[in-house]
Write a structure and sequence with these properties.
By secondary structure, the protein is an alpha/beta fold. About 35% of the residues lie in helices and about 20% in strands. The protein has a single domain (about 1-245), classed as Ribokinase (UDP-N-acetylmuramoyl-L-alanine:D-glutamate ligase, 3-Layer(aba) Sandwich), CATH 3.40.1190. The protein has a six-stranded mixed sheet. Strands 7-8-9 form a three-stranded antiparallel sheet, sandwiched between helices. A three-stranded mixed sheet has the order 10-12-11, with no helix packed on it. A hairpin with a 2-residue loop joins strand 2 and strand 3. The model has no long low-confidence stretch (mean pLDDT about 95).
Length: about 250
């Protein structure tokens, strides 16, 4: 299940998550939090759904389907975050992957600044895994973005999540290094740095991790498989007409 906003150009958000679930061969369900008018050049308008509607969608999905894993993307504000946490209370064993979406790649803000505390204090303690990039990790922890990634990860674990995948796309170097950290272990994943920016990679990665967990894989294997799948997609990313960012093909692994 994905809990996120809609992307009208289909490259990120709910649409990217559903296409990723399909590529990873799992049944897909969705809870919509917002409707955005956007393309790869930017976000022009956002309409939030009411907390009542978010709650109704959650109830409809969880009453019907045996959801094994869920991911969150754009949650927009504290009221929606609280609604999601309350809605998941009846499913304590459900694995939750949190992609702490704050700002779109194009620069548009997708999380109210006043909601950062709700994400930090209520959502992260419920998370099986949180998947921030370095700016998001810095915003959530209050540490500098250039702080050692291990320290950023430890600070996020201290907020209550069970595991952290720190994405290294904003760091420098010829290769991107991602760090998976739990209280008892760490694993590193290295892959080539791409010359172009691609729309929706964070959405797709977190959705793929949730899909592999739903298929019964352990956390490290799920992360490894998801990263490998995303690298395959990046090999065939294409530039949208008149767009500033490339798009993923969302092909099966």
């Amino acid at each position: 299940m994905t809990i996120a906003g809609s992307d009208s150009c289909g490259g990120a958000g709910i649409q990217a998550d559903l296409k990723t679930f399909n590529a990873c061969a799992v049944q897909a369900a969705s809870v919509l939090t917002a409707i955005t008018a956007q393309n790869t050049a930017g976000v022009s308008q956002v309409t939030l759904l009411s907390p009542d509607m978010v709650q109704a969608q959650l109830r409809a999905v969880l009453d019907e389907l045996p959801i094994r894993a869920a991911k969150t993307g754009m949650l927009a504000n504290a009221e929606i975050i609280d609604t999601v946490i309350t809605g998941l209370t009846a499913s304590p064993d459900l694995c939750l992957v949190v992609d702490p979406v704050m700002v779109a790649t194009s620069g548009a803000r997708l999380l109210d600044r006043n909601a950062e505390a709700a994400m930090r204090e209520r959502l992260l303690p419920r998370a099986t895994l949180v998947t921030p990039n370095l700016p998001e990790a810095a915003a959530l922890t209050g540490l500098a973005e250039d702080h050692p990634v291990e320290a950023l990860g430890e600070a996020l674990l201290a907020l209550g999540c069970k595991a952290v995948l720190l994405k290294g796309g904003h760091s420098r170097g010829e290769r991107v290094e991602d760090l998976l950290l739990t209280p008892d272990s760490e694993a590193r994943f290295s892959h080539p740095r791409r010359p172009m920016q691609v729309h929706g990679t964070g959405c797709a990665l977190s959705a793929a991790i949730a899909a592999h967990i739903a298929r019964g894989e352990n956390l490290e294997t799920a992360v490894d498989q998801a990263i490998n799948w995303l690298q395959q997609q990046l090999d065939h990313a294409w530039t949208a007409p008149n767009g500033k960012l490339a798009m993923l093909p969302f092909a099966s692994a």
